[in-house]
Design a protein that fits this description.
Blueprint (H helix, E strand, L loop, with lengths): L1 E8 L3 H12 L4 E5 L5 H4 L3 H20 L12 H10 L5 H8 L2 E4 L2 E3 L4 E4 L2 E10 L3 E3 L13 H5 L7 E5 L3 H12 L3 E5 L11 H13 L3 E3 L4 E7 L2 E6 L2 E5 L1 E4 L3 E3 L32 E3 L11 H17 L12 E3 L4 E6 L2 H6 L4 E7 L15 E8 L5 E8 L2 H13 L4 H5 L8 H9 L6
Parallel strand pairs: 1-2, 1-6, 2-3, 6-16, 8-9, 8-14, 9-10
Antiparallel strand pairs: 4-5, 5-6, 7-15, 11-12, 12-13, 17-18, 18-21, 19-20, 20-21
Helix pairs in contact: 1-9, 3-4, 3-7
Bound molecules: flavin-adenine dinucleotide.
Length: 447
């Protein structure tokens, strides 16, 4: 039986950092991957999606410049873009693993015992095992749910269908819906709950809904999917009281830890209703040899940088004993729609839950006259939550075309304990979205 110091299940963002760190520290490291090396971010998800998002942003930008020194029009060429995306997903990660001395085994892995794994009909022993198996589309129980296309399949369609309905009003549906609408499809989103995009600020979401409606995206809330039927002309979805006909229906109803088939009982790894039960060091509460990282860990947000942060923390804990805890309080997140909706830190709900008295600085300049002619950064809305009295920034939420970078800057400001006054007193680059945010704050008398 082969022996390892660390064996990693999965090769995505939750896996790679731990594998490299532990290997560099002298561990004998192996990785098992049942699909494409690099996980979901590499295997045609995040990167191709970014390219499609960038294309749809570019269309937006060019349209805003039309009549201001630009002429002609542009549109998203789905087929061509998809082709480029498919070619560009090979990161050479397997070669990087190999040259670092990390053994890659292609195959599906499952537990045989606390430190023993089955893979390709053989057993291996490992002192530590990192489960970085990612997440899979949540199982849906309505009749005809098998007709749903996964977001992965959607990104790889040869041609964009004329109409698409997304089941679920979360970030995957919204990002893909904006791309599809800009590429010319008729798009509908249905959500079972009264609100979409939970986890983002309600006021900014309402503004984004208006922008989405202007793109022609139809959104139905309080509309749980009852059934999905196939007809010769396409699909019919019954969602609440709405009957929607579409050529394609996409699963956008969330992703759950992919733990089926891991035989966790054999590894004495206990689970709870969310997934694998872990302590704050990402270690299984029942099998100390086992750690988790990435989307398979239900405690963290399903984001690539969070997966990487957890992977590094798990590595340090396996190497030097438990002391590293992932810090979830300053996680910057982006909804890559047009405009983007980005956030970091607390919302009003979280601040209230923690009993922190707070001020809200809410500015809406989405219909600013300065927009157009390349001045789209002047078209934005934001909400900053600051602690009453001290002015300490607790959360920053921005809707705008350059919101990603502005929120990254805000993440550092929150991490550094900055106050509203600190922001106001910092001269930053003009023109930029964050300049416009700070400029608007300067009209607010509160510190
Ligand atoms: C449509 C979409 C868009 C996204 N956009 C963004 C974005 O813009 N920004 C962002 O930060 N995040 C984004 N994410 C989330 C981000 O991609 C994930 O958080 C991140 O990739 C998770 O990495 P992971 O290693 O945990 O999981 P994965 O990348 O899913 O890797 C898990 C790997 O484990 C393998 N595996 C599972 N079980 C076994 C087994 N038993 N044996 C062997 N191998 C196994 C799987 O095949 C898979 O390759 C997006 C996700 C989706 C679905």
């Amino acid at each position: 039986m082969k022996h390892y110091d660390l064996f990693v299940i999965g090769s995505g963002s939750g896996a790679a950092r731990a594998a490299f760190i532990c290997r560099r520290a002298g561990f004998r490291v192996g990785i098992a991957e049942k699909a494409a090396i690099g996980g979901i971010a590499a295997a045609a998800f995040t990167s191709p999606q970014k390219r499609l998002t960038a294309a749809s942003e570019a269309v937006n930008f060019v349209n805003s410049m039309t009549g201001c020194g630009l002429k002609g029009s542009v549109s998203v060429d789905w087929e061509h873009l998809r082709g480029i995306s498919a070619e560009s997903v090979s990161y050479g990660l397997e070669e990087e693993f190999n040259s670092a001395g990390i053994e890659v085994i292609h195959g599906k892995c499952s537990f045989a015992d606390k430190n023993i794994l089955n893979i390709n009909g053989e057993q291996i022993f490992s002192r530590f095992i990192l489960i970085a198996a990612g997440a899979a589309p949540a199982k849906l129980s309505f009749a005809g749910s098998g007709h749903l296309t996964s977001s992965f399949e959607f990104m790889n369609l040869e041609a964009l269908p004329p109409s698409v309905v997304f089941a679920g009003g979360g970030y995957i549906s919204f990002e893909l819906a904006h791309i599809a609408a800009r590429a010319g499809a008729k798009v509908t989103i249905v959500e079972a709950l009264p609100r979409v995009l939970r986890g983002f600020d309600d006021d900014l979401v309402d503004l984004l809904l208006k922008e989405s409606a202007a793109l022609g995206i139809e959104i139905f809330t309080d509309a749980p999917v009852r059934f999905l039927e196939k007809h010769s002309g396409g699909l019919i979805m019954q969602a609440g009281t709405h009957k929607i006909a579409a050529a394609l229906a996409v699963h956008g109803a969330g992703r759950a830890p992919d733990i089926e088939g891991l035989c966790l009982e054999a590894g004495e790894i206990s689970t709870n209703e969310q997934g694998i039960a872990v302590n704050c060091y990402l270690q299984s509460v029942s099998n100390p040899a086992v750690y988790v990282a990435g989307d398979v860990n239900a405690l963290g947000m399903q984001l690539k940088p969070v997966a990487e942060m957890e992977s590094a923390a798990a590595a340090v804990n396996m190497l030097f004993g438990n002391h590293e805890m992932p810090e979830y309080n300053v996680v910057a997140r982006a909804l890559l729609t047009s405009p983007q909706l980005c956030a970091v830190g607390m919302g009003e709900r979280e601040a209230a839950l923690e009993n922190i008295p707070f001020d809200v600085h809410f500015v809406n300049k989405l219909s600013s006259q300065k927009s157009g002619c390349g001045m789209d950064c002047a078209k934005f809305a934001f909400k900053i939550i600051s602690e009453k009295g001290t002015g300490r920034i607790l959360g920053v939420h921005i809707l705008g075309s350059e919101a990603q970078e502005a929120v990254n800057t805000a993440a550092l400001a929150i991490r550094g304990g900055c106050t509203i006054k600190n922001l106001k007193n910092t001269a930053i680059v003009f023109p930029s979205l964050f300049y416009d945010v700070i400029n608007s704050l300067n009209c607010d008398y509160r510190s």
